Amino acid sequence: MKKLRTFYLLLSAWISVRAQHCPFDGSAILVLNIHSADSAGIIPGLKIYLEDSLGKPFFSYRYMDKKWVNDTVWFRQNPDHTTFRGYIDNNNPTEIHKIRFPFARNNYVTTVYDGFPIEKYKIKIADTDGVANGGWFQPKTSVLTDRDVYPLCTTYNDEVYNCPFKKIVYKPADVILVKK
User: Fold this and answer.
1) Which of 13, 85, 98, 100 is least buried, going by the fewest C-beta atoms within 10 A?
2) Residue (of 86, 116, 114) closest to 98 by Cα position
3) What are the backbone angles phi and psi of residue 162, rounded to the nearest 5°?
4) pLDDT tens-digit readout, 70-92
5) pTM for the complete prediction?
6) Contact 10/4 with Cβ under 8 angstroms?
7) CB distance 96 to 111 below 8 Å
8) Is 28 helix (H, G, I), strand (E, B) or coil?
9) What is the Cα–Cα distance from 123 to 1, expressed in whole angstroms?
């Protein structure tokens, strides 16, 4: 009996040491598939941010340049590969622009907290590089719903997103821009 109890204690300790906690605990992702009406390809080089009901940029604390800054919540195009290596926690936060979310492909992404009231905000999209991305596109304001907010503490790998505990079917928000 003593050997069984010792084995159980060692097994419990081993499991607790090996248990992993989601590095994005409490975080969610917004994914935008932005293209023109005549093409399904992503339009690169856009400036995209969240704005409040007064039309002012929405600010939130983000980890940038090895410090926490209160900055506009910008969308960025998901990189082709990640430059991040290591473990993410409160004492070692990552710079989110270094992370690749494989299921989001090359779409635009930003992270918010899970349960973020997206209905209270608008997405502001502006083409700032003009001809470089295929033409000058008209600025656009778009709205999203809570169905467009996906929790990050779930199971995803490669190109597959799966959230069994919320039964969510992943699909990036589709936004079509019109040329000027």
Assistant:
1) 85
2) 86
3) -140, 125
4) 989 999 999 887 766 665 555 55
5) 0.80
6) no
7) yes
8) strand
9) 63
